[in-house]
Write a structure and sequence with these properties.
- The chain has no helices and three strands.
- By secondary structure, it is an all-beta fold.
- The chain has a three-stranded antiparallel β-sheet, with no helix packed on it.
- It is elongated, with a radius of gyration of 17 Å.
- Helix content is 0%, strand content 51%.
Amino acid sequence: MSDRRPDVDVFTSVKAKELKLGRVPRTRVWFDGEPDHESETRQHRENLPDEVEPGVVYRDVKVEWRALSRIVHPTDEEV
């Protein structure tokens, strides 16, 4: 994403003393719309691998997730 400030900035976080998943979740994030946009997601995990496994107990878990998007109009000047 460019150095310009995003038009939308969504942040959430969650903590758990213990987390056990019955199945591996399937997640999907997408951005859509007109005019064009620059978008990205960011995440930070503590004590939780990128690829989780069902039935495994993860302890002292923290996940932070952020979605950022900036509208790009055809008349915008290049940065």
